[in-house]
Amino acid sequence: MQASPAAPPGASPNRSPMALYALTVGAFGIGTTEFVIMGLLLQLAGDLQVSVATAGLLISGYALGVFVGAPLLTAATSRVPRKTALLALMAIFTLGNIACALAPSYGVLMAARVITSLAHGTFFGVGTVVATSVVPADRKASAISTMFTGLTVATLLGVPAGAWLGLHHGWRSTFWAVSAIGVIAMAVIALFVSAKDAGSGSAVSLREEFKVLKRGHVLLGLAATVLGFAGVFVVFTFVQPLLTRVSGFSDAGVSAVLLVFGVGMIVGNIVGGRWADRAPVRALLGTLAVLAGVLVAMGFAMQSQVLAVLFIGLLGAAGFATVAPLQLRVLSKAEGAGQSMASSLNIAAFNLGNALGAWLGGAVIEHGPGLGALPWAAAVLTVGGLAVAWVSVRRDRRAAPAVPQAAAACA
């Protein structure tokens, strides 16, 4: 039997893989509670006696809670050991979902959703730092993608399962189930995330933490995330009417097509992480360029049902291939004490991109050329993100010391 290779310095040979999987469980729960509401809107609206549009604001409220809560909660937990912070965040997540399950009114449910969302950005932000700290330097992007696999699996399995529970046992049962996932996540994090590997909190002041926002490359990275990923949600937010009214699918057929999107997300997430490990800059620019190309072609493809299925899968793959390179870019440019803050801010940036994409998609439908033009409008945003990333890379190259010709010839 072949011996296992020695673990790299700073990484635990036995606990590191399990630590990543423990973080993945937490990511699965958070991803489920974020997106499952899309499959519960009709039940919520009927039970709480509000319109479907008003029920839809529960999605916007969650996204805004992530955007606001990520930097604030990261600052509040900056001096706390990272394992303790992760456990506290999952406790907030679990209690928030219990409050959702017990909510007697729409207003209470909205407040509970916002409370739940506060844990989202900081969990992924701190979790990213922990994930990259328990693996060798050449596997940091893959570690990020492993953790984010929980989010993609949530879209593939957790959301349909939650919607099925809500349909057959009432929407409250879905939140009880997600609460149980939160308890399980707390248990596996407590068992498998080593306090030593996770690291201590930052010893610097909150003022020092926020100084990360003065770094031009961090700001460019955040802007690239907002614009680049917003393109995905221009289309995904309105994927049901796009498939039924443009591609001609039945309402029942949409669920099967969304499974293809979920599979694409998982594949893209893994590919993006491995590419970013080998060539982080090429992966950053390449994944955004591929996403823009998919969106442009998608505008022509949605008239055919066969091509629509193919491109929905490609959208999931191309969209989530960008996640690890974008997250790694911001993390690498933050350095030192500002990494947790920068990482959390980038999660907030993903959610701001979600909101921006949904807003632009609605504007295109109501005031622009309509549903069929959504992929092209999305491509414009993603090209904007690619341009910002390119500017950041160009700044890197200008700041780098000149490479001697002899050395360059040998490279």
UniProtKB/TrEMBL annotation:
User: Gene3D superfamilies this protein is in?
Assistant: MFS general substrate transporter like domains (1.20.1250.20)
Q: Where is this chain's protein located in or outside the cell?
A: Cell membrane
- The transmembrane residues are 20-42, 48-73, 85-108, 114-135, 147-167, 173-195, 216-240, 252-271, 283-301, 307-326, 347-365, 371-391
Q: Which UniProt keywords apply?
A: Cell membrane, Membrane, Transmembrane, Transmembrane helix
Has the keyword Isomerase been applied to this entry?
no
Name the PANTHER family on file.
INNER MEMBRANE TRANSPORT PROTEIN YDHP, PURINE EFFLUX PUMP PBUE
Can you name this protein?
A: MFS transporter
The organism is Pelomonas candidula
